[in-house]
Amino acid sequence: MKLHVADNIKAIVPYPPGKPLDELEREYGITDSIKLASNENPWGPSPLAVEAIQGCLTGLHRYPDGSSYYLTRAVADWVGCAPEEIVLGNGSNEVIEFLVKAFVQAGDEVITSHPSFLMYQKFVQVRGGENTVIPLRDMTHDLETISRAVSERTRLIFLDNPNNPCGTLISPERFEDFLRSLPETVIVVLDEAYVDFVDPAERIDVLSRIRKPDGIPAVVALRTFSKAFGLAGLRVGFGIMHRDIAELLHRVRQPFNINLPGQVGALAALKDTAHYEKTLNGTREGRQWLSEQVEELGCRAYPSHTNFFLIDVRGDATVLYESMLRQGVIVRSMKAYGFPDFIRITVGTEAENHRFVAALAKSLKELGYVAG
Ligand SMILES: *Cc1c(COP(=O)(O)O)cnc(C)c1O
């Protein structure tokens, strides 16, 4: 083939093609593996969502409602804002893409942190924009350096809060100072994929911020049904923003970006407070217990405001990952994120957490990483 591939596309490193769980199990000769690698909800989807989705299937021959009328209203009620201030996406990932499409042209700059969620930079590359990447400081966003890196060409700043993979948080006070240090022309995107797990007293009041007084940069908050709501496979997320920004994002949105099961499933999940509370409580208890166990094994567990946390295993994390995989426990090595001795694990169910601890103990011993 003789193709003229765009230079910015040539430069993109493809998303590593992960294998399906079944395939991995076959390869390693294991069964009943547990996956604690992707920060998913181990208690499954809301039963109410499953029921609603089953109920909608006979309507699949019709296009879904292009405005997601009912879901948008339900999300706005849940957040406490107007429907005009919500934009739904095929996962919050799609809302990231809308923002980049609407605001970034070739040569424009976008600031992100490293390590952080990788998709921000990817969408910018596709668009021919420039990524300015600022390292985290003490595992948190280095807001002072980010502020200094802003130029006339900066359009967006992405901050995952809490940060993935570190689980750390920006305090409301620091965030306020940060906003006041920026020119009015940039948009600050707060990716709040894990905000459900954060103590309400420590959350940033994004609603007062999206209706900004003049002179302060616009804030867009991103939320998702993929984590606390247990619907990662359904692909529904949303952004909360000033209605003028929402109007711009609707221009780049495909009319049917939220499919029919997505619309009814997410709507039902919002009403399932029992499942939501169970997830939050189980996560809090599991994280506490796991951290204690991990420290007893001689590793260091980092505090986190999310359903995942980092562990310093005091040895090569990728070798440990392989060793645990052979025991059917899938974790994430942080080597590619710049932490060669760290793994990231997602809090599982009680049974999964016990299996994880047993497997970690065995692997650490076999590899001789920690004494004992
Ligand atoms: C998991 C995650 C998301 C969720 O993306 P969806 O497209 O909504 O599934 C977004 N941001 C961060 C930082 C995440 O870790």
From TrEMBL:
Known cofactor(s): pyridoxal 5'-phosphate
EC number: 2.6.1.9
Pathway given in the UniProt record: Amino-acid biosynthesis; L-histidine biosynthesis; L-histidine from 5-phospho-alpha-D-ribose 1-diphosphate: step 7/9
InterPro entries for the chain: Aminotrans_II_pyridoxalP_BS, Aminotransferase_I/II_large, HisP_aminotrans, HistidinolP_aminotransfase, PyrdxlP-dep_Trfase, PyrdxlP-dep_Trfase_major, PyrdxlP-dep_Trfase_small
Alphabetic keyword roster: Amino-acid biosynthesis, Aminotransferase, Histidine biosynthesis, Pyridoxal phosphate, Transferase
GO biological process assignments: L-histidine biosynthetic process
Domain Aminotransferase class I/classII large residues, every copy: 32-360
Gene Ontology MF, one: histidinol-phosphate transaminase activity
Residue positions, PTM N6-(pyridoxal phosphate)lysine: 227
Subunit structure: Homodimer.
The name this protein goes by in its record: Histidinol-phosphate aminotransferase
